[in-house]
Amino acid sequence: MQLIKNAKILWNNQLVLRDILIDQGIIQKISDHLESNAATTFDAKGAFLSTGLVDVHVHFREPGFEYKETINSGSKAAARGGFTTVIAMPNLNPVPDNEEKITNQIARNKQNGVIHIEQYGAISNNLTSTQVTNIKGMSAAGAKAFTNDGKGVQTANTMLQAMVAAASVNKPLAAHLEDDTLVHDGVMNEGEASIKLALPGITGLAESSQLARDLVLAKATGVHYHVAHISTKESVELVRIAKHEGVHVTAEVSPHHLLLSEEDINSDNAMFKMNPPLRTQRDREAVIAGLLDGTIDMVATDHAPHGKEEKQKSFRDAPFGITGIETSFQLLYTYLVKNGVMTLETLLERMVTAPVSAFQLQAPTSVEEGARADLALFDLENNYEIDTESFESMGKNSPFIGWEVYGKTLATWVDGEIVYKDNVK
Ligand SMILES: NC(=O)N[C@@H](CC(=O)O)C(=O)O
Ligand SMILES: [Zn+2]
Ligand SMILES: [Zn+2]
C-alpha cells in the first residue's frame, strides 16, 4: 500500500492538491487529506501528478541492435520521461513478421521491460514491400497494431491487402510514408538548409503523395489508418480533408517536428538527421495548428536511439533517427504550454487520452479512484538543462542538448510500483 501526499492533480481543468492511496496497483482513494499507518508514504511536495504518458511510436532495438538500446534501457528511459505504456516498432532482427516471432517478442518485452510495452507486427515479410504477413494470426497472438515503420510500403497492392486484413481484425495500420522513388538518397529536407549545406534533399512529396494513395485505399477498406510522424503542411491538409470525408484516419506528430525546422540545422550535425526530416517553418506551423485543432490526434516521440559513433558521422553517413522519450513532455510543456500555445489539458489529451482511445489500449486516462496506478510526477516549477549523459537511454543522439526545460520527472509508477525515481528526491 502506498500513500502519495501533497500531489497536484488535474480536476475539472484545475490543479488541486490531493492525497492518493494506492493498493494492489489501483488508486483506491483520493482526498484532501489521507492518513494510513499501513502505507509507505511518498511526499510529492506539491508537484504535478499525471496519468502515465502513452507513446505509440518507440524503437527499443532488441533483438538485433542491442548496442543502440535494449528493452530494459528503453523502458527505463520511457519511465524517466513519464511514460507508462508504449507500442514498440518492429524494425528489429528478427522482424516480428509471423505468429511465432511476435509471440516471442511480446514475451521478451514483458520479461525485460519496466513499463507496459505493446508490440507492432510487420505489414510485410522482413519489412520489404512484397509478401503481406499473416496479420490475422499475429493479431490473435497479441500484436496491437501493424506497420513497416522505417520503410514505406512501396506498392499499392501490398498496402491494400494489408488494410483488408487489418480491418478484418479491427487493428490499426500505421504508415511510415516514404515513396522510395522520390527520395534520391536525400538526407535532409529539400530546401534552404540542403542548399546551404550542399547536402542531398528529400522532397515533402515523398510523404504526401504516398499519404494520398493510402487515404484512398483506407476509405475503400474502412481500416483504421494511422499516419506515423506527420511532417508536412500538405499531409496535414490531406488528413483534414480525409477526416471530413469520414475516413477512419488518425495521425501523430513528433516533438521535434513541432519544435524544430530545417532552419535549426546550421552545420553538418547528424543530431538533426531523422526521418522524416525537419521541414520548413511553414510545415512546423501547420503541424502545430493540426495538433491544436485535432487533425493530428496525438504526439508520439519516434524514440530512435543510435550508437554514439554512428551519430558522430556526417549527415550523409549517419543513420536517421533521434532519441526523444526522456525529453518530450518536458519540451512540449515548456515550449507549447508555458508559452501559451496550448493548455496542459490539451497536451495531456494528445499524450494520453488520444493514443489510448485510438489504439484501444488498456491504460488509464485520468487520475481517479478505481483507475490503474500508472502515474508520473512532474516538477513544473523548476527548470534544468537537457543533458544526454544523464539519460537512461543508451541513445545520446538528441538535437535538444542544452535546451532549458521545465517538467522534470520526479517519479513514475507502473501498476502502483515505483519504476523511476529522480535521485535528488
Ligand atoms: N525516425 C527515424 O529517423 N528512424 C527510425 C525509423 C523510422 O521511424 O522511420 C529508426 O528506426 O531509427
Ligand atoms: Zn518512420
Ligand atoms: Zn519510427
UniProtKB/TrEMBL annotation:
GO terms for biological process: 'de novo' UMP biosynthetic process; purine nucleobase catabolic process. One of its GO terms (molecular function) is allantoinase activity. It is an enzyme of class 3 (hydrolase). The keyword Zinc applies. The active site is at D302. Binds 2 Zn(2+) ions per subunit. Substrate binds at H59, F60, R61, N91, N275, H306, F320, G321. Zn(2+) 1 binds at H57, H59, D149, D302. This is Dihydroorotase. It comes from Leuconostoc suionicum.
